[in-house]
């Protein structure tokens, strides 16, 4: 068991481990980590039998784990428990402080810090669209009828335009995200588009005015709903309801999950639940093993 700097990681073996494990999500791939982190190292068990990405920064000369922008879950990936004493000790030898997103398969039991459960809404897409639609709430069915009557149109969109719209409308909500984060995500989106692992959609009115955007990543397991953006005029027309429904119809009967990416916000969570989504909880892990007196400056 080793912690390896990214410069020495075998990315092909790393990404193969992410690919073959059900909770190995796109955020843990080498392309995502290289694009979105300041620095990262990887905990590697045996010949990449299991891995754990460790994004880190330094402050006052102290290395700490952090959650990169637009990164929902990382955690231990592979046939080992996060409670393995050797794993926990290896992490503790590497870093003494951090806020780190585990994945849904990681269920810590040791008293190693504070755990905060987070909501993640997912929807299986493997069945026919009409079967999926049976799980829609009655209000959603009504909203979709109104959206169709409004003459909305679902179409391909430009990735940069979708990200720009999200940043313009929602940047104030995410004060820790800076322009550089959005620029890095644009570069990642365009890079992944070349291998068909990212795409953007939009909804327009009959005159071609954009009412909503969706920016998505995808792999062999999931479609990730990273940047849903509803423009003010689109709210009255139920444009985002329409966009998500069209996306579901487009990808129905595929062995994928639609990963709504949240949310702990009651209103957003309720919106996703209208589509029949289920909660797949994961945890934010906060730990502080800094020596006295530093630990009391960093709660």
Structure description:
This protein starts with a strand and ends in an 11-residue tail after the last strand. β9 and β10 form a beta hairpin. By secondary structure, it is of the alpha+beta class. The protein is 32% helix and 26% strand. It has two domains: 2-117 and 282-296, Aminopeptidase; 121-279, Aminopeptidase (3-Layer(aba) Sandwich).
Short structural description:
The chain has helices spanning 11-20, 30-36, 85-94, 129-133, 138-149, 159-170, 179-193, 232-235, 239-251, 266-273; strands at 2-5, 40-45, 50-59, 62-65, 97-101, 114-118, 121-124, 153-156, 198-204, 210-218, 222-230, 257-259, 278-279, 282-288. By secondary structure, it is α+β, with helices and mostly antiparallel strands.
Name the descriptors.
299 residues, alpha+beta, Aminopeptidase, seven-stranded mixed sheet, four-stranded antiparallel sheet, 32% helix, elongated
């Amino acid at each position: 068991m080793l912690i390896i700097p990214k410069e020495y990681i075998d990315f092909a073996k790393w990404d193969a481990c992410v690919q073959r494990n059900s909770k190995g999500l796109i955020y843990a791939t080498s392309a995502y980590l290289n694009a979105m982190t300041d620095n990262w190292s990887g905990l590697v068990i045996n010949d990449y039998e299991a891995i754990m990405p460790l994004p880190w920064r330094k402050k006052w000369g102290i290395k700490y784990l952090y959650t990169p922008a637009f990164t929902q879950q990382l955690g231990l990936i592979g046939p080992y428990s996060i409670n393995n004493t050797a794993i926990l000790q290896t992490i503790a030898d590497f870093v003494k402080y951090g806020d780190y997103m585990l994945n849904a398969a990681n269920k810590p039991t040791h008293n190693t810090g504070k755990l905060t459960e987070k909501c993640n809404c997912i929807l299986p897409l493997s069945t026919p669209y009409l079967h999926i639609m049976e799980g829609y709430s009655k209000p959603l069915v009504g909203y979709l009828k109104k959206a169709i009557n409004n003459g909305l149109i679902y179409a391909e969109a430009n990735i940069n335009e979708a990200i720009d719209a999200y940043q313009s409308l929602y940047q104030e909500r995410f004060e820790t995200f800076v322009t550089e984060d959005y620029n890095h995500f644009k570069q990642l989106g365009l890079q992944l588009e070349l291998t068909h692992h990212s795409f953007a959609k939009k909804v327009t009115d009959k005159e071609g005015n954009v009412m909503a955007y969706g920016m998505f990543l995808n792999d062999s397991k999931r479609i990730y709903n990273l940047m849903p953006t509803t423009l003010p005029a689109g709210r009255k027309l139920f444009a985002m309801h329409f966009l998500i429904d069209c996306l579901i119809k487009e990808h129905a009967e595929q062995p994928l999950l639609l990963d709504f990416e949240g949310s702990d916000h009651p209103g957003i969570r309720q919106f996703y639940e209208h589509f029949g989504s289920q909660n797949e909880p994961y945890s934010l892990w906060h730990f502080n093993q800094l020596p006295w007196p530093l630990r009391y400056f960093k709660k």
